[in-house]
Amino acid sequence: MKDKRKEISAEEKFYMASQWQLMWRKFRKHKLAIIGGVILAIFYTGAIFCEFFSTQDIYKRYTKYIYCPPQRIHFFDEEGKFHFRPFVCGFKRARDPITWEKIYKEDKSKKYPIYFFVRGDKYKLWNIFPSDIHFIGVKKGGILFLFGTDKLGRDMFSRNLYASRISLSIGLVGVALSFILGSLLGGISGFYGGAADMVIQRIIEFLICIPTIPLWMGLAAAIPTDWPPLKVYFAITIILSFVGWCGLARVVRGKLISLREEDFTMAAKIAGASDGRIIVRHLLPSFLSYLIVNLTLSVPGMILGETSLSFLGLGLRPPVVSWGVLLNEAQNVKTVSMHPWLLIPGLFVIITVLAFNFLGDGLRDAADPYK
């Protein structure tokens, strides 16, 4: 009897659950989507608090350690003794006997234990709160290059963390602008029809016919070189949003054409609701699950757009750091063959795009929980 009661109560909970509860139950079953969501949560946490998680100042130069490879984290010393506190070894410079290139070898006589919440280079969290406490680091006199250094001896681990703030935020801001434009113009086009629909659809067709990359490159090249970094950031965001809204606007138009004659729409009109209220409060929420999926899958395109423009030298420029700006330094074969750690920003881009795609697939499946 108890088992039957439990089954009945479980069935009752299922049939009495709200749409969001059903979506969450189905989303939890999509393991890849959960993994993608966790990865994105880690990345965005690191981007938001990049000053705290970085190991040192991103503009600080170590002239003795130019193109220094990533340091290995050790738990065992040269005698095979285990240490609970991980440590890194120092470097000693040498020359390759064949190529005469400068190389770095581990100096196991110099050990630098890694500590949590260690004091280091001063910074301002969000340019507001001054501090010098870093999540991990070594004490003064030691070196810690988890991702190696670049051609000026700057720490690549810290620079990648700072770059994630720009690259990840530009995707969200760009998609937000595209969402507003697509929902607004698509809603007007689908709800009113007539001349407004014809004008908006012709504009969309014109923009879609233009090849995306040349359009982005042309608009980005028009940005004055003497603009401050903040202006360039918003200009690149607007450029990426310029075409991104077209696809969403066409879908919103099609949905509203099919929904504007439904009973709940007519009931809202009879009740005296304004056209704007009907679109925003009744029509758009009726296919909100699709809009969420569309937003999730659009972010990677924005991130790739910024990375491509910055990689080509047409987007963000130094001293601003983004994944595209960092990859701009790895354009030649010599860098790829001799300093492969400079390609780490590309790995972050790949992981972020895959995580967003996994999350989007999970949300797409959860959007229809009755299947």
Give structural attributes.
two-stranded antiparallel ribbon, 14 helices, transmembrane, 5 strands, MetI-like fold, MetI-like, 371 residues, membrane, ABC transporter permease
Low-pLDDT regions: none
What is the residue-averaged pLDDT? 81
Strands, count: 5
- Percentage beta strand: 5-15%
Q: Structural class of the secondary elements?
A: alpha+beta
Instruction: Name the CATH class of the largest domain.
Output: Mainly Alpha
CATH topology annotation of the largest domain: MetI-like fold
Shape: elongated
- State the major sheet: 3 strands, antiparallel
What does this structure look like?
- This protein is elongated.
- The protein is α+β, with helices and mostly antiparallel strands and 371 residues long.
- Strands 1-2-3 form a 3-stranded antiparallel beta sheet, with no helix packed on it. It has a two-stranded antiparallel sheet with strand order 4-5.
- The protein has helices spanning 2-16, 19-28, 31-48, 50-53, 156-192, 194-209, 212-221, 229-259, 263-270, 275-283, 288-311, 323-327, 333-338, 344-366, and strands at residues 74-76, 82-95, 102-113, 115-125, 129-137.
- The model has no long low-confidence stretch (mean pLDDT 81).
- It is a multi-pass membrane protein.
- The chain crosses the membrane at residues 32-54, 166-191, 203-224, 230-252, 283-303, 340-359.
- Residues 164-360 form the ABC transmembrane type-1 domain.
- InterPro entries: MetI-like, MetI-like_sf, OppC_N.
